[in-house]
Amino acid sequence: MADKNTRREDLPAKQNLLNMLPSEAEELLRGFAVRHGEKPFRGSQVVRHLWQNPAESFASMTDLSVAFRNLLEEHFTIPRLALATRQTSSDGTEKFLFRLDDGEFIETVAIPEGTRMTLCISSQAGCALQCAFCATGAMGFTRNLQMFEIAGQVREMKLLSPEKPITNVVFMGMGEPLMNWRAVDPTLTVLNSAAGLGIGARHITVSTVGVLPGIVALGERPEQFRLAISIHAPNDELRQSLMPPNTKYPLASVIEAAKVFERRVTFEYVMLGGINDGGEQATQLAELARECGAFVNLIPLHPGGAGDFTPSSPQQIQWFARRLRAQRVEVAVRKSRGMDIAAACGQLRVERQRRRAPVGPDEDGNVQVA
Ligand code: SAH
After folding, report:
1. What atom in ligand 1 is closest to the CA of residue 207?
2. 120 an active-site residue?
C-alpha cells in the first residue's frame, strides 16, 4: 500500500489483465497469489474469469475471498467496453456500439444463423483505406485498437448475452485488421486458445483489402485461421478507382499472396450495380479465383455506406453467380442482414453522428464528427 506521502503518479500503474495472453496472465497471477499468501490455483481461478467465464469485475469473482478480490482490484484492471447503443433487427441481427475510454466509438454486429452465432468485430477506430462504398472509410482513421478492445468485443457479448454463445468471429467490422497486426496477432490467440475464448481457428476469419505483409504473417500462424480478401473488382483499373490501397497492393500481388497462402482463401465481392457486375467482369473474376483456388462470396451492397452506388438487383447477382459457376468457380451469395438497423460497416456510428444536434464548425472551421 502506498503511504500518504506517496503521490498518485508514483504508484505503479495497474496492469490490464485483458491486454495480455491468458498464459501470461496465468503466470503473473499465480506468482501474485503466492506472494500474497494464497495458493497458486487462486491465480488460475482468476484467469478463468477473464475469458472463459468472464466476470464483470473483481468484486463479482465470488469464488475468491473478499480480501483477495480487494488485492486484485488494487493491482489489476479488467476493463469493460461501455455499451452506448444496442439495436436489434427484425431478422435477429444485433448491433452494438461501444464507447472506448478516449471517447472513440466502435461497432460490433452479432448475426444469428441456424445454430451459429457469428460476431463481426472491429480492429481499428475508423479506417485509413477509404474504399469508395464503405461508411467506415468515409469517417477516416483515428487509431488502432488494442488487443483488449478487439477480443473485448467478444467478451462483452458473453457478458451481455450469455445465453447465445459465439461460434464464429469475422474481422469484418470497422478497420483493416492486417494494418493492426501487432494487436490482431495476440487477439487471434485469445479468441482461439482453450484458456481464452476457445473458438475454433476455422471459425475465425480475417478479412483484408490485401495487405501483403499481414497475409504472410497470418499464413505463418500454425492454426487454421481463415483469410478473406476484399477483391471487389477483377482488374486494376476498376479496383484502383474503388479501393485506393490497390496502389500499394495491386491485384497481381494480392493474387500471388493468396496462391502461396497455404489454406483456401475466400474472395469478397460487393455487387455494385452497373460497375462490377457485368459479364466481362465475371470472366475476369473467375480467372483470378481459379488461379488461386478461391471461393467467391458475392455480397449485396448495403445501402447507406458511402458514395453514390446502386446495389445490383437480386436477379443480376444470381446471374453473375451462375456465370462464375459456369466457369468452375465455387460461389455463395451472402444474405444481407440487419438492413433495418444499418448494420453495414461503419453505419451505426455514422447514424449516431447524424442524429446529433447539428454541430457547427469550430473557430478553425472544422466540423466535429465524433
Ligand atoms: N478492411 C477489411 C475488413 C473490414 S470491411 C476489408 O476490407 O476486408 C468488411 C467487408 O465489408 C469488406 O469486404 C468491405 O469491402 C465490405 N463493405 C464495406 N462497406 C460495405 C457496404 N456498404 N456494403 C457491403 N459490404 C461492404
Report:
1. 8
2. no
